[in-house]
Every structure is written in C-alpha cells, then in structure tokens.
Amino acid sequence: MAVMLSALWHSLPSKPFVSFGSANPNLKVRCTVGIRSNNDLSHCSAIHLQSKPSACDRRFLRNNCSIKTTNASKGDDVSTASTKCGETAMLVIDMQNDYVLSESPTRIVGANAIVPSVIEAVSVAREHGILVIWVVREHDKQGRDVELFRRHLYTDGVGPALQRSKGAELVEGLVIQDGDYKLVKTRFSAFFATNLDLVLKSCGINNLVVVGIQTPNCIRQTVFDAVSLDYKHVTVITDATAAATPEIHLANIEDMKNIGVSTRTLHDWCTTFKL
Amino acid sequence: MANGTCKWNETALLVIDMQNDFVGSPMLAASAKVIVPTVAETVSLARERGIFVIWVVREIDPLGRDVELFRKHHYSNGQGLAIKGSKGAELVEGLKIEEKDYKLVKTRFSAFFNTHLDAVLRGSGINRLVVVGVQTPNCIRQTVFDAVSLDYEHITVIVDATAAATPEIHSANIRDMENVGVATPTLQEWTCSVA
Lengths: 275, 195
What we know:
The complex is a heterodimer of chains A (275) and B (195).
Chain A lengths: L1 H10 L6 E2 L8 E4 L15 E3 L5 H10 L23 E6 L3 H4 L10 H17 L3 E7 L43 E5 L10 H7 L4 E7 L1 H14 L4 E10 L3 H12 L4 E3 L1 H6 L4
Parallel strand pairs in A: 4-5, 4-7, 5-6, 7-8, 8-9
Antiparallel strand pairs in A: 1-2, 2-3
Helix pairs in contact in A: 6-7
Chain B lengths: L10 E6 L3 H4 L5 H21 L2 E7 L43 E5 L10 H7 L4 E7 L1 H14 L4 E10 L3 H12 L8 H5 L4
Parallel strand pairs in B: 1-2, 1-4, 2-3, 4-5
Helix pairs in contact in B: 4-5
Family (chain B): Belongs to the isochorismatase family.
Protein name (chain B): Peroxyureidoacrylate/ureidoacrylate amidohydrolase RutB
Pfam family, one (chain B): Isochorismatase
C-alpha cells in the first residue's frame, strides 16, 4: 500500500491543491481523481496534503474519505476512517485543582494518582483524531448553581471550583488545545442541562470514552445519560477514573458494565488503535 | 404519625417498575419478590398520610423502538419485557393504582428522563420524594440522582422496599446515594419519621 501510494504521489504534482469543505481554509488537498463539485473526497484513492493536518482536520478527513488513516504530516498521504475515531469523543471530567490536589479539602482521594493516566489518555486521543471535550464545573460565588446538598460549602465567597479561581483550573499537565471543546456543567452529569448532546451530534459523534472523576457521581451519571441517549458505544477507562475508595470505584465500574458499557484499562484501550 | 412539622402534602412517593416482567425476571426475582409486601405497605402508609402516589412504569413498544440500544435485541418477534398492553407490563399482584394516584410511563432508567415528571411534581407543590421499587443500581439510582440534580429538598429511598440483583449491589448503591445527601431508612424507620 505504501509503495502504491508513493507511486501515486509522484503522479500527483500535476494536479493543483484545492480547498474543500474543511473548517480549516489552509488545509488543501490534491486527490488522484480530482474533487467533485460537492467537495466529496469519498472516491479518492490517495490524497496529498499541502500542510500538516490538525486533529480536527484529521477527523474531518476521516469522516469524508474512504481510505485508511495514518498519522499525517506535511507531504504525507492520508488514509482514512475504517477506525471510528472521527465518530468518537473523549470526555475528561472534573480534573480540576479543587477536586484533585492533595491539599484541597474537597479533593477526591483517588484523583491525584490518575493524573498521569489521564494525560496519556488525552494524548492518545489527540493522536488519533478523537475530539477532546473538557468537562468542568465553574460555580457561582454564592453557590446559586450548585446542588442543594452542597450549598453550605459556598459562603463568604469561598467554595470549590469557583468561576475564575485557581481551584477551578485544570490540574498541571492537562491543557486545553485548539480544536478541543470546553463544557461547563453544574450538576453531576455532563449532559444535565447542558448542550453536550447537541454538540456531539452535530460533530457526528456516536461513541464516547470517559476519563476523570469521580466514578460514582459525575462519571457514572454522564455514562448512564449517554446510554439513555443511545450513544452507540460508551467506554470508561478504569485506571483513568477514580473514586474516594477502590471499593466504591469497582462497584460502580461493575454497575456500568452491567448496562453495556465497555470498561477497559488504558493499556487495553490503546491496543484498539493497533488493530 | 402526623404533627405540625410534617410536609406530607409536599411529598410524593415514586413506585418504580414494580411490574410482573421485572419483578419476576430471572435476574431480580429472588430479591424483588421479597419487597412486594413492603412496597404495598409503603403505598398504604403514604395514602394514609396524604402523600401523592406516582406509579412509574415502562410500557415498551413491541418492536423495541423506545428501549435503550443495549436492550433492543431482546425485542424481536414480539418478545421482550414489559411490552405495552401485556400482562408482563402490569403491576404485580398486591399493587393497585387508585383514583387519586398518577401513572407515569418512562422509557429510560430515570423517571425524569424525557418525561414530564418534574412538571407534574412542581405543579402539585411537591419538593420531597420517597422512592421504592426496582432496581437499585439503575432506575432507582438514576431517578434519585436526577432528583438531587433537580434540587428536590428531601429525598428518601426506603432500603427494604427497593432491590437489586444481589444484596452487595444494593448496599453499594445505597451507600453512594447516602453520600449525595439522600436519606435511606427502613420502612419501620420511615413509619416513625416525620420527613
């Protein structure tokens, strides 16, 4: 396949680079048989990119091309989507200082230990063109947008994950990049009273991978809502999620497994990309 | 037991999925059948107290078009649990809807998900909920967590009037619900309570 593609490459230079329907106007391709007027790449057997594609670009190409994908850099041929990365999003939930750092009174005990795994999961997701969505809480100083049973934590202008506070920032090592999406929620589930479902559907996302904290509350509620909303395939990465104790974590993982959710370690999940 | 601080007129009892096909299903039967008398007693006490009784049920399309994706494969050839109009969808013996009660049909785990339950409750001035039925990790828990998210002021799950496939699953879920501020008395304890 590589040899055939490089042979095609040498035959391509006579065709011009053209823009097509990607959101990135700088992403230009030339295709073995030209692009039809409706920007349809699905018939192309080889594509040459003029510049290095971002994760969004790779996702767009995977959703619109018919050949297998590889990691593309400038001048590489791109193959596409028989993987479903273009239809998958990773939800990174509540990985914020106030819920993770050991000195924080509202930390989840198991959270600090999973930070490296979450960093790695995000990196792998980006590598494979999976949309990364940062789900966070950013609460009102008076606690007017927090659950009733937690309002007592919000007095005198202090409380966990206040808007614009250091405590609401993502922990060190986790950085929102261009092309990622940030979603603010006010309850356990990332779907509860948010536009998450619409965002995912408009991006053609059918599958979700969930990491972050904490397993019995925000992770589980998001996952159960995803199942209720008929997302085709929902995965929880078991060593990139955490609860106050291992027992609580495992009991919740088991319950999620019982409703058809895939529960995999990070290592196992990464092996799916090697198939 | 009633006194001036009781808020029974602001309280609703949600009786969830106590239907033949669920209570009698191989997975749940051992634990679910046992709670039927306790559920019946809770309903009876709730009526005495003037609590609004809401029967939450599934009545599933014979083709499974309104059931979760992971369960759709059960609904081929007209088979499948709790199909609308079937005996399996009826309430188990011993439980009966009375005139002042309300019946709510849901299609997912939570009684609030894609239903008008919240509007019915608010419209009746309800801000306190008592929950019984099956099964603890799914429909009970999802309803309860949604109720917490919707800021219901006081939520109670009666631990011996709810059930899961195993006692371990039941207890683990009860504990998680306690951790988000839900009250988890036995029926005996609730009988003596004012909340």
